[in-house]
Write a sequence for this structure.
């Protein structure tokens, strides 16, 4: 079974630019989560999809962040326009059951200059 | 909102010494999970605890869930260099939508 994949692995952009991160969950996993870890601190929840629906997006920092999961398969997280404080590692995770073990992707390291 | 704190934030131990990290939630949890993130890696699931007072063991790792389901601990016996990493607890609040909140993490360094 293939694991969760994320693309790109690294992204360096300038303040004001747009970046789109992609996550491909494990096949058959309806639950997809986005997290962010900044400067080695805690893993902050951003949002949770169940299939294509947003179950909880209370962790999204502001309206510069837009997450989609069309068709309930892969998901994208767009940051537009990017700010310096958006730098960090963005993790995606998926799970088969809503309360079950989460499988994390390798993360996308975003650097905003 | 729900807060999940872990102590200590950092811990350096000599190889062979024991290590414990504690996780405390501001609210009652329905369950708690533990993850390990190696340096440069991604979080990897270790275990899930559901019942009040539950204790589970995995080789040298012992996990406990408090009686009130508001705290948990992870104890490693006789640490090895392969135990290096950051350990996170992740708690789900009870009732309704069970949102997951990750703890602040404990970074473990093992000195050979």
């Amino acid at each position: 079974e293939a694991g969760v994949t994320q693309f790109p692995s690294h992204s360096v952009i300038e303040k004001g630019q747009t970046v789109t991160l992609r996550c491909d969950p494990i096949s058959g996993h309806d639950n997809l989560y986005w997290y962010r870890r900044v400067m080695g601190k805690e893993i902050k929840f951003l949002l949770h999809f169940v299939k294509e629906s947003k179950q909880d997006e209370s962790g999204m920092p502001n309206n510069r962040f837009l997450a989609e999961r069309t068709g309930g398969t892969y998901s994208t997280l767009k940051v537009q326009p990017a700010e310096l404080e958006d730098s960090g590692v963005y993790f995606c995770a998926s799970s088969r059951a809503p309360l079950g073990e989460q499988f994390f992707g390798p993360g996308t390291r975003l650097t905003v200059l | 909102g729900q807060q999940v704190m872990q102590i200590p934030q950092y811990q350096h131990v000599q190889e062979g010494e024991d290590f414990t990290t504690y996780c405390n939630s501001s609210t009652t949890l329905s369950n708690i999970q533990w993850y390990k993130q190696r340096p440069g890696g991604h979080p990897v699931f270790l275990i899930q605890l559901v019942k009040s007072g539950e204790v589970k063991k995995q080789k040298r790792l012992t996990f406990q869930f408090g009686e009130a389901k508001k705290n948990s601990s992870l104890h490693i016996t006789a640490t090895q260099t392969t135990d290096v990493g950051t350990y996170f607890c992740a708690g789900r609040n009870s009732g309704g939508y069970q949102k997951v909140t990750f703890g602040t993490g404990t970074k473990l360094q093992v000195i050979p």
